[in-house]
Amino acid sequence: MTFAEQLRGRLRQTLPEITEHDDYDLDPAHRPAQFGAVKAAVLLPVTLRAEPMLLFTRRTETLARHSGQVSFPGGRSEADDLTPVATALRETFEETGIAPGFVTITGYLDRYLTGTGFDIQPVVGLLAEGFSLAPDPREVASVFEVPLAFLLDPANRRRETRMLGGRMRSFYAFTHQGHEIWGATAAIIVNLAERLNGVSLGHAD
What we know:
The protein is an alpha+beta fold. It is 19% helix and 37% strand. The chain contains 4 helices and 12 strands, in the order H-E-E-E-E-E-H-E-E-E-E-H-E-E-E-H. It has helices spanning 3-10, 84-96, 148-152, 183-195; strands spanning 19-22, 38-48, 52-59, 70-71, 74-76, 103-108, 111-113, 118-127, 140-147, 158-164, 167-176, 179-182. The strands form 2 sheets. Strands 1, 2, 3, 4, 5, 6, 7, 8 and 9 form a 9-stranded mixed beta sheet that branches. It has a 3-stranded antiparallel beta sheet with strand order 10-11-12. Strand 10 (158-164) and strand 11 form a beta hairpin. The longest helix has 13 residues, at 84-96. The radius of gyration is 16 Å and the shape is globular. The N and C termini lie close together (10 Å). The mean pLDDT is 91.
């Protein structure tokens, strides 16, 4: 069985109806009584090279929210977006220049609610060969890839605690070649790792 077939077999094939995870999963005692709920979606773009890779963006330092942080391409849903997939593909094209025609959707992860008020639907997609990058310089400082095997290995995952928004918060984090991946992005990676536990990465076609 190819990696792509295994991926489809492990992911949700229908959109989840409720949010199952949030920024307070690691310290539920600090969870607020109520969250905001702006709909959003991100794409987890998997490139099938010699080994599967996961593509990320680093946000520019000038953005009002999450400046300089590593994230998946994505953002809030707009009125014309009929589905979370439409949001993820539109935002990915706007941020990175990757055209929707190069993305094959393979499934979904659990919805994730952030403390900043976003109800995020992660969408997983395979990137076909030949895609090109044209990052929007207003939003994206760089685009880079990390081996999926590195991200799926629990040994490369750590738990940190720091003061955020006036509260002590615990969260997952990864470091790869100088890139710090933490917060909601890291939590979504952990959710992916849970679903792909035991999947063979040896056949990336």
